[in-house]
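Please decode residue identities from the backbone states below.
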């Protein structure tokens, strides 16, 4: 029973389930995954899994929110270690991190693309709100850390730039998936003009946006 476990044991069990779900998500599309398969991968009963998450959507929504929470906290620590940090540094960091999210945190951005159309439809609202509050707090800490170093920006403006970055990645991911169906390439079809080079094209699009918003700042191409 979940209630007989200590807080530390519950945390360990939740991490065990999260790791199992992400391992399977690396190999399959969301629609192909089942709670039974996740329970088996985690080495727990299906009943135990449902004690933690009432639906597949709740589980992956939590993974999404917690993943970005950890990412924002890591980014905050890295910025705090910078001896100098200007507006140009911040905008350049946004571009670098756009590529980093796509290449290093692929599972996270895949989940983010599912959030609106799929995850929100079946996720537990109370659980989502709780984890979203933690994510919001980490986002605020990140924005405030940046704002103290770049006082020409407001916390709201910084948060908005992070939202635009997220939206651009998700949008480009959807475009990049036009030549696939359930993560299976459509080999027999030729959709040449629909093809998107996800990382470079997203960074280029975001650079255009930032240069339009901050025309006096020179952004380099990496």
């Amino acid at each position: 029973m979940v209630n007989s476990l200590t807080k530390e044991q519950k945390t360990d069990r939740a991490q065990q389930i999260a790791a199992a779900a992400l391992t399977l998500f690396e190999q399959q599309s969301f629609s192909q995954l089942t709670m039974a398969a996740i329970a088996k991968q985690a080495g727990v009963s299906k009943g135990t899994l449902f004690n933690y998450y009432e639906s597949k959507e709740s589980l992956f929504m939590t993974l999404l929110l917690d993943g970005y929470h950890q990412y924002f906290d890591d980014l905050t620590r890295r910025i705090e270690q910078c001896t100098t940090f200007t507006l140009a540094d911040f905008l350049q960091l946004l571009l670098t991190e756009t590529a980093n999210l796509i290449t290093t945190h692929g599972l996270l951005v895949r989940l983010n693309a599912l959030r609106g159309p799929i995850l929100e439809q079946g996720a537990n609202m109370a659980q989502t709100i709780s984890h979203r509050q933690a994510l919001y707090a980490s986002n605020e800490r990140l924005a405030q850390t940046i704002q103290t170093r770049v006082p020409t920006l407001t916390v709201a403006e910084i948060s908005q730039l992070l939202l635009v970055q997220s939206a651009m990645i998700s949008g480009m991911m959807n475009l990049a998936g036009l030549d696939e169906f359930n993560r299976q390439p459509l080999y027999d079809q030729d959709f040449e003009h629909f093809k998107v080079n996800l990382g470079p094209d997203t960074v280029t699009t975001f650079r255009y946006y930032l240069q339009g918003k901050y025309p006096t700042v020179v952004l380099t191409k990496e």
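Observation: The longest strand covers residues 180-181.
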